[in-house]
Amino acid sequence: MAEIRELSEHVGATVTLRGWVEGTRGHGKVAFLVLRDGTGVVQCVVVKSQVQEDEWALHGVLTPECLVRVSGEVKVDARAPGGFEIGVSALALLAPSEEYPIQPKEHGVDFLLDHRHLWLRSSQQRAGLRVRAEVEQAVHDFLYRGGFVRIDSPILTGAVGEHAGSLFETDYFGETAYLAQTGQLYIEAACPAFRRVYCFGPTFRAEKSKTRRHLTEFWMVEPEVAFADSDENMRLQEDFVSYIVERALENCAEELKVLERDTSRLEAVKPPFPRMSYTEAVAELQGRGAAVEWGKDLGASDETELMADRELPLFVHDYPKQAKAFYMKENPADPRTVLCNDLLVPEGYGEIIGGSQREDDLGRLQARIAEEGLPEKAYAWYLDLRRYGTFPHSGFGLGIERTVAWITGRHHIRELIPFPRLMNRLYP
Amino acid sequence: MAEIRELSEHVGATVTLRGWVEGTRGHGKVAFLVLRDGTGVVQCVVVKSQVQEDEWALHGVLTPECLVRVSGEVKVDARAPGGFEIGVSALALLAPSEEYPIQPKEHGVDFLLDHRHLWLRSSQQRAGLRVRAEVEQAVHDFLYRGGFVRIDSPILTGAVGEHAGSLFETDYFGETAYLAQTGQLYIEAACPAFRRVYCFGPTFRAEKSKTRRHLTEFWMVEPEVAFADSDENMRLQEDFVSYIVERALENCAEELKVLERDTSRLEAVKPPFPRMSYTEAVAELQGRGAAVEWGKDLGASDETELMADRELPLFVHDYPKQAKAFYMKENPADPRTVLCNDLLVPEGYGEIIGGSQREDDLGRLQARIAEEGLPEKAYAWYLDLRRYGTFPHSGFGLGIERTVAWITGRHHIRELIPFPRLMNRLYP
Description:
2 copies of one chain form a homodimer. By secondary structure, chain A is of the alpha+beta class.
């Protein structure tokens, strides 16, 4: 059994393929059949005079997504998508597909999401998810080659995190466990063992958001580096993001074409990225008439405004302490702020990274935990990291779906995860 | 700031290192300090006459896990672990570590698990987790290079799986969601899109097991291949496992030495692996006097007995239908059995893989769902895959912690995951 991806090795030879019918059309004594086998798509040409009568008759009744076996000669055809064509000598129906729900017409998004298990077969969905897979491999490759040790952080956690109100919880043999929103605190513990570490996995937010940038279950990569300060943290981020974009451009050219992505915007993504302090950002936004006040976190609309004329990703750093999480390190140059950054990307995609240098002073960290009204007992182990050889360190979290939405130019991040989980969607 | 991993590039030069003190010992006018910086461990030699008085005094009060800065000349020393030594010219204490809980003595396992956030720094734990990280990268590399597309399956699921009694559940905006025990059913849906797919992530079992081979949260990789039959599935498994073992041997020689692993056992792991049908296995076990009956799944003690004299992993295939999951394909040659396999490994580690060809006949699958008393509605989308171009396919799940326990030769799988979740353990 041959595969479509390897047709170039079989030019002139007769191969047998198995796959699903994407569509058919006929012109009198010649018919065309578009076949997908999961490794590619190829057009098969059936000439009435060259096949058995029942095979010719069969062609007319093939419906979308039925499974067929096709034998025929591999021919080079520059006009064909993929560059090859099959001159069919035998054709057999292996499995029917009657009234396939997804038709070549406009469907509502709820209908498509209800049929996500079939919608995955569509060309744009395939393209988006293949870019996702490439981005994920690029994440692992970049970090592995950079000497990072992968540390899988737990999903089931006893400690109450920063957003207690937006946690999913479950009974854990009589205790309450929460589904983790981040692995950061855990992997900080592995820095004294491995210096450079990261976690990569699903994270959870029980938020009633219905925006195009929110999922209740999404994937995040979180690198953490001992002895790195906030500046080094941003340099790592720009190298990381640039590498990921480069890999997608290199290995997903065809997919980005299917998605009609303007890749010239992505080709410009090279380090260094411009940087702007939060205070400068607020001044710029106020100068443009935005109703933003110093002290509050920037909202999605502020981010869009800030990125309106920008071609490149932008670091916004050193946010006000009260707008950010308790574990971020106080900025010695301006103690109203913390040593942190967001990374905003252009074209309306907003924040894809949040990062910071971590508070490594035991007393200051305890004070922040108290200020936020968090239970110190739940963080006892985390405070231990400041008791026994505390060390400067920094890290960040990059959201996979947001990053892939930006790279692919898709509007809604729900298309860039195989089975999206939204406030009103747990099926399929 | 230099790093221990790159000392070979600095022989004869003076470098400055930062890291944690693993231990000290003194002999009159010479003292030794073992330094770990996360990239390696190196011995630093302090000679009283060559440092300042306060630096010499400092050496005597350095406690385990305090953070220090050391400057000195890099010297080749074949006797030293790692092959280098630092001739100290300057020494400074950066952060104290008073009464570090983990001492160089025997601690009970509960004490160590309570201090898992610090225990990670110990040499055997570092070694085990580094092998884990290498195995995980090997998983991704093997599958990526083989043309597999990664498909992240959801953790939050509405469908009730095969072991409804052992699922964690959570309130999902008024509905009940379950934490997934497998991604298999979901990634089957992606086969018509990509032919070869896999998922890799955490999975959950709310089981009250306290064995050395169980965790409530563990990681699993699950490849799935369209058009593969059970035989091809086993061939993929033996290639995959052999590659993973080879990568660990190649890139973790030092870690396996720290763990005192007999690597000759691993070097023999090459395809093909021997195969034995379940029926043959039962006969062999009965021949040895075991109280095993045809029709029941093999238990851990059966597996141990079966592997007692074996050097290589062993496939046991074609188990009785009633002992296995509803989605496994009926064996045409013996309909009492299904086309499935477990992969057992030697040295008492038992099953690391379960795999099968999937039932691709709609009617038979519906009958099995009814027989098991499962709600057909929850599987409506899964049945659709048999309605629209159903196709033969096979796949398997490999447990990461069990595989790493076998490769590293550790007794209990809880040491091979950074923060183990056990029936009575949700902290740290």
